[in-house]
Amino acid sequence: MAFTLPPLGYDYAALEPHIDARTMEIHHTKHHQAYVTNLNAAIEKAPELADKTLEWLLQNLSSVPEAVRNAVRNNGGGHWNHSFFWQIIGPKAGGNPTGAVADAIKSSCGDFAKLKEQVNAAGLARFGSGWAWVVADKGGKLTIESSPNQDTPISEKKTVILGVDVWEHAYYLKYQNRRADYLAAWWNVVNWAEVNKRFEAR
């Protein structure tokens, strides 16, 4: 069954003023849709993969035929990363984390301010395009990681609870080259209830 573009679950303008409506629309309907389209095209060339889940594909890239492996890695990663991203941001969000993930942030990072500082630093240090991530181990310890392009920690079977897209297409219309300003504003749209749900389900 072909992969499909998931709905956002909120209006493109819902994250204003932090992320503008035009950026959200282009990001979702053009960039994310392109990853879905290209992933499906790659799978068509390797029909033995047609029944595989997205997670299986990304966690078993060495089993994917070499002729389509890079396409599956890049476009499958783009599809997974963005599907995740739309869920951990949302309207009427931001503020301080609550629940079990708040305790994990305190024990792993010291406090929320330090987590933000470390995630923003990872996002700023990512040369070119990529992502900054917060991953949780089985014991609840959090670590901050960064990956290039559309690579994703789930390829290493890690549990991702938070991630920020630092590709220019995520922010350029509003912030131009000011990635630091985008990262600072992005915390105002983090859906902590969803982040906490993912943490608790690790």
Write the layout of secondary structure elements.
Layout: H1 21-44, H2 54-59, H3 66-87, H4 100-109, H5 112-125, E1 130-136, E2 142-148, E3 159-165, H6 172-175, H7 179-186, H8 192-200
Antiparallel strand pairs: 1-2, 1-3
Helix pairs in contact: 1-3
How would you describe this protein?
The chain has a three-stranded antiparallel beta sheet with strand order 2-1-3, sandwiched between helices. It is built from eight helices and three strands, in the order αααααβββααα. By secondary structure, it is mostly helical. The chain has two domains: 20-87, Fe,Mn superoxide dismutase (SOD) domain (Helix Hairpins, Orthogonal Bundle), CATH 1.10.287.990; 100-200, Iron/manganese superoxide dismutase, C-terminal domain (minor pseudopilin epsh fold, 3-Layer(bab) Sandwich), CATH 3.55.40.20. α1 runs antiparallel to α3.
Tally the structural domains: 2
Shape, principal axes of CA atoms: globular
CATH homology superfamily name of the largest domain = Iron/manganese superoxide dismutase, C-terminal domain
Order of helices and strands: HHHHHEEEHHH
CATH topology of the largest domain: minor pseudopilin epsh fold
Radius of gyration: 17 Å
| Average predicted local confidence, pLDDT | 97
**What fraction of residues sit in β-strands?**
5-15%
Contiguous runs where pLDDT drops below 50 for at least 5 residues: none
The top-level CATH class of the largest domain is: Alpha Beta
Question: What is the helix fraction of residues, given as a range?
Answer: 40-55%
CATH architecture of the largest domain: 3-Layer(bab) Sandwich
Number of E-state strands: 3
- In this structure, how is the largest beta sheet organized? 3 strands, antiparallel
The strand line-up of the biggest sheet is 2-1-3
**Structural classification:** mainly alpha
Number of DSSP helices? Answer: 8
